[in-house]
TrEMBL record:
Keywords: DNA-binding. PANTHER family: HTH-TYPE TRANSCRIPTIONAL REGULATOR RUTR (PTHR30055), TRANSCRIPTIONAL REGULATORY PROTEIN (PTHR30055:SF235). Residues 39-58 bind DNA. Gene3D superfamilies: Homeodomain-like, Tetracycline Repressor, domain 2. It comes from the Bacteria. This is TetR family transcriptional regulator. It comes from Pseudofrankia asymbiotica. Residues 16-76 form the HTH tetR-type domain.
């Protein structure tokens, strides 16, 4: 057996075509099976590549998800980039990341298209909800810690989503034209309270 014949065997090496085929498999699997249940190994097996090649191309599962939507700015990865640092100033870092990303003409336009698609396509809505729950609310809950961390993380995410909707979809003034520094000054305290302020948990169910 010569080297040419031997190199043709086994799993395929990376190439632009291979990358496109991985994306096609991932997009179909995410939409049909959901984000939570799909694994990189199952995508690699179906695409006929080594799982390490997917990691090489896309870095992680959330990176692969962003690539399947063609996103220049992938929300879960933006959150991951903002997490390192002083816990007290996380709200400021998240807000500045959101504003810088959505104010960018290319990345912001693409994210607006993503929002429109999510609203119109139930399958994409379900998929994106799973991504938010796992890669954003879940990550924030781990970051905050404590029994009520999921509630705090969800409240934080809801406030950030509301800011995006108000500033970039509704374009409600004066929020829409407010400079980034001023927006952060007004909104960061509420986000900080959602994550860190002491709260009393209500009892659920019949009272003794």
């Amino acid at each position: 057996m010569n080297k040419t014949e031997g190199s043709a065997r086994g799993r395929r090496a990376g190439s632009p075509d291979t990358r496109s085929e991985i994306l096609e498999v991932a997009r179909r699997r995410f939409l049909s099976d959901g984000y939570r249940t799909v694994t990189l190994r199952s995508i690699a097996a179906e695409a006929g590549v080594d799982v390490a090649l997917i990691s090489y191309f896309f870095g992680s599962k959330k990176g692969l998800f962003g690539a399947t939507l063609g996103l220049l700015a992938n929300p879960p990865e933006l959150l991951s980039a903002a997490l390192p640092g002083d816990r007290a100033t996380l709200p400021e870092r998240v807000l500045r990341t959101v504003v810088a990303t959505w104010d960018d003409s290319d990345r912001g336009s693409q994210l607006r298209l993503m929002i429109a698609a999510i609203v119109q396509e139930p399958e994409l809505t379900r998929l994106f909800r799973e991504v938010l729950e796992r890669e954003m609310v879940g990550r924030l809950a781990e970051y905050v810690g404590g029994a009520d961390a999921p509630y705090r993380a969800a409240a934080f995410t809801a406030q950030v989503a509301g800011t995006i909707f108000t500033r970039y979809v509704l374009e409600l003034e004066p929020i829409a034209s407010m400079p980034a520094d001023e927006l952060v000054r007004h909104l960061a305290p509420g986000l900080r309270a959602a994550l860190y302020a002491p709260t009393a948990r209500r009892r659920v169910g019949p009272q003794a």
